[in-house]
Amino acid sequence: MKSRSRSNVIPNFVVKRSSSVRQDLSPDRSLCHKVKNDKSVRGEKRQNVMRNLDLVIEELASSNSQEHLEHAIESALEAFAHTRTDLHDEEIRLGADIATIKLLDRTLASGKLENLVSLCSILEMVFRCSTEVLQLSYSSNGPEVVALLIKVIKECLDGMIRGKQVALQSTMKILHRFSSGVRDAKNDMVHNDELLIIISEIASKDVGSGTREDSMGIVRNIALLNKQNRIILAGKSCLLDSIVKTALNEKSHYKVREQCSAIMW
Questions:
Q1: From CA 247, how far away is CA 257, in angstroms rounded?
Q2: What is the reported pTM?
């Protein structure tokens, strides 16, 4: 996976600091909290927000102890919990997605999963960005991210994670966004048998209507791309069986059933 810096797309007003200076600084969580939903943030105040976001992301990227990591996660959860698409764009341009993906990979490899739910939440927040920037992120390491998210989903379905419903919800939201806004993701996903099998499994489990709706939304987006994708999906018998059963199940949420009906139509 690539390093966190995307210097070619980082705005000119973001001031880069040396690592020795960064070690003496901590993110001002209240700063992002005060302005993250304020559409009028401009000029110097915006520069301060951007510098603070850069510190939050650098703290994630440089976490070298459990204590440091937990503090970085806490800062990121607060700093990224907003609805400002433009700020999520800047978070990705500053490398928030790459830093979080690396931590997610490291966590899965270690088998110590206590921070997995929080990392999935952070990644889901960051990916609330614009479609253009989402495409930029996917072009960097999209298939690797999807592979990591599949590992997370497997851990959730195996019942190995405390708070697995939240982690599962976050991962499916990310995959749904990829399938909604990134053409390359749709083309990759239709050939990803592991993902399609997992989606068919989720469709038949009690994982919450939102998560099941996301899973069917992914299939619908893949199918709508082109005729070839629909032909490929038609050959996935386990997936089709799950879609039909879910659509006919009166206990399924009506939005989930609508997604299933749209796929079959």
A1: 5
A2: 0.80
pLDDT in tens, the chain (265 residues): 555 555 443 333 232 323 333 334 455 544 454 445 555 555 667 788 888 899 999 999 998 888 999 999 999 999 999 999 999 999 999 999 999 999 999 999 998 899 999 999 999 999 999 999 999 999 999 999 999 999 999 999 887 677 889 999 999 999 999 999 999 999 999 999 999 999 888 877 878 878 988 988 899 899 888 989 888 988 887 787 777 777 666 566 667 667 666 665 5
Helix extents (H) in the chain: 19-22, 29-35, 43-61, 66-79, 85-93, 96-110, 116-126, 131-157, 164-181, 183-190, 193-203, 209-225, 227-234, 237-248, 254-264
Query: Are 129 and 174 contacting, i.e. CB atoms less than 8 angstroms apart?
Result: no
Q: Are 6 and 54 in contact (CB under 8 A)?
A: no
The tokens for 181 are 């806004």
The answer to whether the beta carbons of residues 22 and 55 sit under 8 Å apart is: yes
The token duo for 40 is 């009028």
